Amino acid sequence: MDAPITQDVLTIPRKLPEEGKRNLVGLTRPQLLEALVAIGTPERQAKMRVGQIWQWIYHWGAQDFEAMTNLAKGYRADLARHFQISRPEIVTRQISEDGTRKYLLRIAGGHEVEAVYIPEENRGTLCISSQVGCTLTCSFCHTGTQKLVRNLTAAEIVGQVLVARDDLGEWPVPGAPKDETRLVSNVVLMGMGEPLYNFDNVRDAMKVVMDGEGLSISRRRITLSTSGVVPEIARTAQEIGCLLAISFHATTDEVRDKLVPINKRWNIQTLLDALREYPRISNSERITFEYVMLKDVNDSDADARRLVKLIAGIPAKINLIPFNEWPGAPYQRSDWARIEAFSDIVHKAGYASPIRTPRGEDIMAACGQLKSATERGRQRAADIAAQAGL
Ligand code: SAH
Ligand code: SF4
Fold it and tell me: Which of 186, 242, 263, 308 satisfies CB 3.0 to 4.6 Å to 125 for a cystine?
């Protein structure tokens, strides 16, 4: 944690949200059409206008209507009177030694969420949040210690992708040769919150992100991670169709009840039954099983063997996540040799079992470490008050 951290002031020009004007970001195409008609756009033109505005917002990254030069001046003024194109505001941006960028973003109501950009050799993954805090209380997760404040809107979910592209300077330049390399090539819903407890907004946001005329991130480059909200899993397949990751983390109900308490509602067997249906319904590839390695809790050879037995028949990949510590965490990371032994057993059973290298640890950007700074501040104040007997 002593590594030097770059925390810089941003110089990107950005517009702050304007009160009372509807934000066009995050609207689905039908919603955008309705919004345009409602301000008097003739119905027979509206579909074409949707296409034009969509391209400006999601292909070119436009932040105001003035830039939309293929629309008549008067119409641009109409749009500006009623609407805005706004994103969450970047409060801080920290850049880790390994290039990982963590954004603390402010959204309406003064709430804060985090998004993390992880550059890799041949791809760049943006990890986004779906809620402020989380209602679930997984005992190894830092976010789980923060109470749910609210669901993010579709605009705030899509907005995280726009902000990252702004910051990385990734919008195309008109007239410049097309650059096929993408900085934000993948999106994972693995930040703060349980995406399947905010289903409609997550679905609408992903529809926008996947749209081929705009951000165009394909459904196979989007991974939604859930702790196991069983009734929404089939809907995820049908209505989003992205890749699925499951926070599995244990091989007996007894241990999973403690680590991922939603297991008391939908146990391992019920969850696995839902997962067996997933690839068939969504036409997607393997399901990722996330398994956090906790010393002496879930990391034995017997656990590894039970795991492969449980998932037999499901096209799967097992992501082993060395536990990322956070202040006051009740667990320790398994020893490296133990993680490798576990991985070997899973691998020999025929499953890919990569060990996820923790990224951005120096800036607390790794999995499960996210928790907004104001919340941390509040928590610290509460701890101090408790110690002082207040
Ligand atoms: N709520 C969703 C998505 C967010 S959590 C879910 O639980 O799946 C993203 C991943 O990070 C999950 O697999 C979660 O179990 C894991 N995680 C949480 N805290 C962690 C920690 N301290 N160390 C390592 N992984 C953690
Ligand atoms: Fe919520 Fe996921 Fe953390 Fe569990 S692991 S508390 S579901 S964010």
Answer: 186
